[in-house]
């Protein structure tokens, strides 16, 4: 039940800190992580991880790619299930497949799972519904523990996927003796993420004002960032387009000058996401290029990199996990834009919660 919330989406956005804490309780015991030893052994044995997903879950998979490579030292690539099914890349010697899916029923993923099961290749499904087809048919399954997600636009499942990927990447990296995994205190980072998300949720009226300033009447919008900020830009654009019908595009900030800057006109809204110290200055200069052409920029910036004039500050967190924070204002920007335009936030046109046909 959505209780006091006007829409499930706002309820589910607000539940994200509790989901982070639930995942910590579910997958940690004291200082150790709790994963099936057989799962860890199968992952250790793999020479490459193939993350297969669609939509929002694919965007969580892109973050997972960075997490598994950097913490566990294993080559990892995220694929769109609908592409992988019919245009399969060359597989490595010992592939391991990770299916990321909120519903566990997405037909595009099932198509891939059937193919890899026919080849007897090992797989894991991370899902919010452990009884679902993709959980039953994969070698292993892990619970996202996000609780039922009712709104069509996925929110808490995305952050649950990123958090669970971080927990598993840490466990795998630790099992492999990776120094980067040892240095990464996943429990501390996820509890910081929960507190930080709450701080952002508490700023929802200010974010509502920003949504009005940026998106009240626009027909298009852009989100830019680099690294994990790029991945969260893709998810931010998807949220805005699916519930507010604004034509939104997320892309790598460095690509702006390779084409998209041609679309910047006076008043064009651009959200710049800046949480990584290695590229912050570059993304800032991209934002200035937008402003020089009259574009309207909203800067979402990590506390440690903040400068006067930044619009929204997100608390400190390892840049690998910053999507857990930066997505929250993006979800709220999309929510309020949809609300102010008078749409049914939870049930956008032409979309179904679970896509069970290819
Ligand atoms: C976006 C959204 C969709 C789903 C996609 C995959 O808000 O809901 O893009 O993320 O259809 O669904 P699952 O995760 O159930 O496989």
From TrEMBL:
GO terms for molecular function: glutamine-fructose-6-phosphate transaminase (isomerizing) activity. It comes from the Bacteria. Residues 39-178, 210-348 form the SIS domain. This is Glutamine--fructose-6-phosphate aminotransferase [isomerizing]. It catalyses: D-fructose 6-phosphate + L-glutamine = D-glucosamine 6-phosphate + L-glutamate. The chain holds residues 244 to 601 of 601 of the full protein. Its EC number is 2.6.1.16. Keywords: Aminotransferase, Glutamine amidotransferase, Repeat, Transferase. Coiled coil: none annotated. It is an enzyme of class 2 (transferase).
